Amino acid sequence: MSSAYPAMNSLWSIEGAAPGAVAASFKEAKLAPGKIGVLAIDAQDSTLQAIKDGWISATLNQCWFNASPQAAKRIIEAKAGKASPAFVPIKVDAVTKDRLPYSGCPADFTNY
Known about the structure:
- There is one protein chain.
- With about 110 residues, this protein is an alpha/beta fold.
- The protein has one domain: Response regulator (Rossmann fold, 3-Layer(aba) Sandwich), CATH 3.40.50.2300.
- It is built from three helices and four strands; from the N terminus they run βαβαβαβ.
- The chain has helices at about 20-30, 45-50, 65-80, and strands at about 10, 35-40, 60, 90-95.
- The protein has a four-stranded mixed beta sheet, covered by helices on one side.
């Protein structure tokens, strides 16, 4: 991608497994860490390592760990005749190098 778009200075990855390939692909393209700013999604081990090594600038960790209780809550409410909201936002936690090692989403992010 960097050879097709040499002026590219930023990249946003919207799929959780893809950021793990950033370091390898940038190394192959002979790019230095930080030459292209990368915003990733999720806090997978490979993404956190790439942040530590300077290949990824930040990631937005989706704090959806309580999605199952939320689904159960909506089912119970629906059975009781209450309309479910059309949209339930999922909080994200920005992770940058200064937040490593990352211990996960804050506990108060479960309050929906």
